[in-house]
Amino acid sequence: MNQNEHNFDDLKKLLKLKQHEVPPPGYFNNFSGQVISRIRAGEAGRSQSFTERLQVEAPWAMSIFRIFETRPGLIGGFATSLCLLLVLAVVFAERSEHSSQNLLAISAEPAAASVGNSVTAMTAPTLATGSDNSGIVASTNPVTSLQPTATLFGQEGGSTLFQPASFMATGH
Amino acid sequence: MTMTMAEPADIPETPVQTGEMDLVRRAQKGDLEAYDELVKRYQQRIYATIYHMTSNHEDANDLAQDAFIKAYSALKSFRGGSTFYTWVYRIAVNKTINFLKQRKNKHHFSLNDLDFHTENNPDLVALISDKTPVREVGLSELQKKLNEALMKLSEPHRMVVVLHDVQGQSHDEIAEIMDCNIGTVRSRLFYARQQLQGYLTEYAKPA
User: Fold this and answer.
1) In this structure, which topology does domain B154-207 adopt according to CATH?
2) Do A15 and B165 touch (CB under 8 A)?
3) Short-list A128, A134, A133, A122, CA closest to A166
């Protein structure tokens, strides 16, 4: 390795030529200033882009801001009216809740009555007793199943309703 | 654009200076004055490295500024695992290599002038004295040939030569900057020197 390094002596001397190279005098006096200016410009650009975007997307908001800038008293009025609106909304929401509860209480009794009637009005399947009194009972009213049945290929039939036929037990 | 030459002593010898971490912390909080101080500390080294890689003053100026701006925007992610100097160097090196890959085979030299200090360098004088009768012409020619030879190297090989033989960085520092091991740095340096010697046989003959 030493032999190799020794072989590069002339090259190392030659490379010293580049070691001396620097830009024109005074170049570095402004360099850091330019970097900082570009950083500041970038930061200002980012904040500016937000206002520009707001101006494009919601020009009405920008016009409101401008009005507020020229008339600071309006900000107070606007804030007060917003608070009032909020309070009114809360009060109105509570009142409407009470009224809906009252309505529920009033309609609860008739509703219960009508529910009872409807239950009794429903026809329950009657049991037919066999004439031979064998103890086997059968329903005379067919029960309709509204559940869809599976087809032969295992696919559910969309509108097919299963409706078993009524039967009478007649002994063995 | 022409390039002037200056004393190597103009470049700070010790990159890590006292109060660096304090400046970094202040800059992380958005203190641009602190960051300005950090830029001033390392601007010459960063610029010089990029210039020697590109052989173009305008490109070096743009890339060096971009590197410092990128470093500022990424400063919050800097945890202090390495020195700020190494960290910003790494940003500059990566930026330069990416730039050179995009600009592949489109070298445009923008070299600065040589100043009178170069003529007083005994090593350089010895190299050119028996080659050209007029010393000034010889130095300009030498500078051009040297830059052309460097541009023939691949970016990683050129970077190692620039950092070690021109900038005077240690193998350890180069390994950290280039994110590779020391063995790779050594082998790249050896290969790059061999290549350069081949391109510059007229001036750099093996002993």
Assistant:
1) Arc Repressor Mutant, subunit A (1.10.10)
2) yes
3) A128
